[in-house]
């Protein structure tokens, strides 16, 4: 096996002692063919592995195949699966077996994050939970649902793409699902201690040397 510290030798020479020029550098194979060099005694032979649709020693001879008639329309690219079958990679805005059909999803008709699925010349929008309609442009009124998403007497306020629960003073949470504890978490800042004075009210007491500014902020007494 030929081993060299010079990386380029692997590309330009072949053989057990790197004694033969590499006939594959540069490759003589055309049309996407892959060149392979093989040593036999004092000789070096090359072969070209041709892609579908070409043959010959250097892959120069076209073979009759399904892409020869350019079946992919509107700028689509034809790729052979076998000599008799093909697939088209269509340009943006086109779909179908031969890219013959305008893609109904190309204009992004689905709004508000809806997912567009093409069915021949038509499309269907799969809407996110908070929207509905053919193009997902209609807001779902969650406040009209029964039961209401807001619990414990909360008032539901519909918003575009969402809703808001306005809770009674003694409840909190996205859906007014939990009792309101005015000291959990503590609203008192800078080391102040929160004391619950009723179900919905609190008072802050400050550390020695501090005084209460406004309702919940303790500051140093000398602060002006």
Q: What are the main properties of this structure?
A:
two-stranded antiparallel ribbon; developmental protein; mainly beta; transmembrane; disordered N terminus; repeat; disulfide bond; 1 helix; single chain; 224 residues; 2% helix; calcium
- Outline type: elongated
Mean pLDDT: 87
The share of residues in helices is: under 10%
List unreliable stretches of 5+ residues.
Answer: 3-10
> What oligomeric assembly is this protein in?
single chain
Q: Rg to the nearest angstrom? A: 37 Å
| Biggest β-sheet description | 2 strands, antiparallel
β-sheet strand percentage = 25-35%
The number of strands is 22
Q: Order the strands across the largest sheet as they lie in space.
A: 1-2
Distance between the termini: 84 Å
Number of helices: 1
Order of SSEs: HEEEEEEEEEEEEEEEEEEEEEE
In terms of structural class, how would the helical and strand content be classed? mainly beta
Give the SSE map:
Blueprint: H1 9-12, E1 13-14, E2 20-21, E3 34-40, E4 43-49, E5 54-55, E6 61-62, E7 77-80, E8 86-89, E9 94-95, E10 101-102, E11 115-119, E12 122-126, E13 131-132, E14 138-139, E15 155-159, E16 162-166, E17 171-172, E18 178-179, E19 193-196, E20 202-205, E21 210-213, E22 217-220
Antiparallel strand pairs: 1-2, 3-4, 5-6, 7-8, 9-10, 11-12, 13-14, 15-16, 17-18, 19-20, 21-22
Concise structural overview:
The chain contains 1 helix and 22 strands. It is mainly beta and 224 residues long. The strands form 11 sheets. It has a two-stranded antiparallel sheet with strand order 1-2.
């Amino acid at each position: 096996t030929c081993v060299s510290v010079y990386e380029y030798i692997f590309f330009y020479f072949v053989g057990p002692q790197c004694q033969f020029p590499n006939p594959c550098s540069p490759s003589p194979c055309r049309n996407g063919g892959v060149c392979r060099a093989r040593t036999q005694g004092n000789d070096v032979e090359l072969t070209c592995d041709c892609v579908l649709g070409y043959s010959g020693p250097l892959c120069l001879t076209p073979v009759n195949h399904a892409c020869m008639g350019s079946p992919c329309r509107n700028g689509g690219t034809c790729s052979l699966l076998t000599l008799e079958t093909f697939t088209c990679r269509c340009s943006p805005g086109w779909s179908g077996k031969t890219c013959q059909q305008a893609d109904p999803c190309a204009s992004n008709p689905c709004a508000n994050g809806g997912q567009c699925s093409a069915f021949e010349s038509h499309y269907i929008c799969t809407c996110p939970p908070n929207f509905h309609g053919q193009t997902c442009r209609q807001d779902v009124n969650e406040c009209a649902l029964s039961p209401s998403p807001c619990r414990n007497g909360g008032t539901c306020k519909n918003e575009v793409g969402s809703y808001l629960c306005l809770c009674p003073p003694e409840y909190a949470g996205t859906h007014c699902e939990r009792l309101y504890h005015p000291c959990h978490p503590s609203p008192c800042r800078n080391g102040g201690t929160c004391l619950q004075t009723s179900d919905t009210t609190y008072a802050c007491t400050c550390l020695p040397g501090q005084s209460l500014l406004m309702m919940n902020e303790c500051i140093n007494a000398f602060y002006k």
